[in-house]
Design goal:
This protein has 457 residues and is an alpha/beta fold. The chain has 16 helices and 16 strands.
Length: 457
């Protein structure tokens, strides 16, 4: 079969509006050419993120109505706890309002100056939380993870040789914890194999270092394992997910991704003593341990979402849609990171706009072009996000100049994404006409969220 249709049909729709090119050019100027500052209502196809932007099912909407809003020991908490424990096998669950809150609570206890916390690739908020409390965040993804075009099955894997060298050199005194992000968002949404998860876990156990998963996209990762890892072909996605978590001592999760919710997250732990210490931070920052940062109704919707996300027909349709989107973009002449990952297609802006130097922010130029030409919003992951000006005044660009087009779950049809590919094709036909951008105003940190830019003339 060529088609793998979505195992659901549409019951409710939300109107979206296309704007005129003139209107978009005006809005871009008002927003300082920063897509984070453009009103969402003026975006036609919004691929800024797959986080919290998914469509809930009829089961989830009805679960909201069953939310028990009791302050302590609510029925909805027990439902959420049972589902999370069923997937992770972890006894201690701390609900939070989103993933970074779970990271903040964990690292407020674990991260200290002089310590090192490795990962395949830390997501921005994970890195920021680790660095905020003083430790160094180190990325140890396999070398092929940096190769945009190597068509390999598990480009999100941890480089086990480098992990072992780090563990040997520093020991458990200096490495308080090791993270592994599944799928590897920073590295293009690429999956990590079960063999690699087991290998990283075994190395950490041998050195007495706790091993944690950043599990935002655990189901998408499990699906890739089932499709691509010979030894796991006969396992269900649910079995693979449990095998992944069985390797870990704990996990952080933003349930805004594979929880199929609009808000929510959790921290799961095996270590009861650590859980007791972290619960104090949870109460201070989020709320009583049986609701954390969430309403009872959110806990209900997430419990149902965490069950639904393991449906293999859903995962095949979802990841198949991302792959078809990648093919359509390539056919339109747009260079992309390959193979496509689980949740997004990453455009290679250096390949698309080779005439724009890193200081001209080529990935931002492509992001602006997508909005100007088609009302499409993506996110720049290039020199606007990671570039910096050195003390001697020279500009150090990012390693890669990417634009991420993240696909919200159960929201857009292939027709919407086909339109985005058509817009990309138009841009590629006229690529020489797009120029660079310069920053005219920037905050001291996380500048990509609020910087204002101007076209270079
Ligand atoms: N870890 C990973 C791998 C993520 O992708 C994210 C969020 C987080 C942690 C933090 O979770 O947003 O709930 O606090 N990623 C979003 C994105 C923002 O667009 O990729 P959060």
């Amino acid at each position: 079969m060529q088609h793998n249709p979505e195992p659901y049909r549409i019951k409710m729709v939300e109107a979206i509006r296309q704007t005129s090119r003139e209107e978009r050019l005006r809005l871009l100027e008002q927003a300082g050419y920063n897509l984070f500052l453009v009103p969402a209502e003026a975006v036609f196809i919004d691929l800024l993120t797959d986080s919290g932007t998914g469509a809930m099912s009829d089961r989830q909407w009805s679960a909201l109505m069953r939310g028990d809003e009791s302050y302590a020991q609510a029925r909805s908490w027990f439902r959420f706890y049972d589902v999370v424990k069923g997937i992770t096998g972890m006894e201690h669950v701390l609900p939070t309002h989103q993933g970074r809150a779970a990271e903040n609570i964990l690292f407020s206890e674990i991260s200290k100056p002089g310590l090192v916390i490795p990962s395949n690739s830390h997501f921005d908020t994970t890195r920021a939380n680790i660095e905020f409390f003083g430790a160094e965040a180190v990325d140890l993804v396999v070398p092929e993870g940096h190769d945009l075009h190597a068509r390999l099955p598990f480009k999100g894997n941890m480089d086990l040789d480098r992990l072992e060298a780090l563990l040997k050199a520093k020991g458990r005194e200096k490495v308080p914890l090791c993270m592994l992000t599944v799928t590897n968002n920073t590295g293009g949404g690429q999956p990590v194999s079960l063999e690699n998860i087991r290998g990283a876990s075994a190395l950490c156990r041998a050195h007495g270092v706790p091993f944690f998963l950043d599990a935002c996209r655990f189901a998408e990762n499990a699906w890739f394992i089932q499709q691509r890892e010979e030894a796991c072909k006969a396992m269900t996605v649910g079995e693979i997910a449990r095998a992944m978590f069985a390797c870990a001592d704990g996990a952080t999760m933003s349930a805004k991704k594979d929880g199929l919710g609009n808000i929510g997250g959790f921290l799961a732990l095996r270590d009861g003593a650590l859980a007791v210490r972290l619960k104090s931070a949870l109460i201070l920052r989020e709320g009583f341990p049986t609701y954390g940062g969430l309403a009872g109704r959110d806990l209900e919707a997430l419990a149902t979402g965490l069950e639904e996300v393991q449906d293999e027909a859903y995962l095949a349709a979802r990841i198949g849609q991302v792959a078809r989107f990648g093919e359509a973009l390539k056919a339109a002449g747009m260079p992309i990171l390959e193979p496509t990952g689980g949740h997004a297609v990453y455009l290679d802006a250096r390949g698309a706009f080779p005439h724009i130097a890193p200081e001209g922010l080529p990935a931002q130029s492509l992001t602006v072009a997508l909005y100007a030409e088609g009302g499409v919003r993506g996110v720049e992951i290039g020199s606007l996000m990671f570039g910096r000006t050195l003390p001697d005044g020279t500009f150090q660009g990012a390693d890669l100049e990417l634009v991420r087009l993240a696909v919200p779950r159960r929201v857009y049809t292939d027709n919407h994404l086909g339109y985005v590919a058509e817009v990309a094709g138009e841009i590629m036909r006229r690529k020489g006409t797009y120029g660079g951008y310069r920053i005219v105003e920037e905050p001291p940190f996380l500048r990509h969220f609020s910087a204002r830019l101007a076209p270079v003339t």
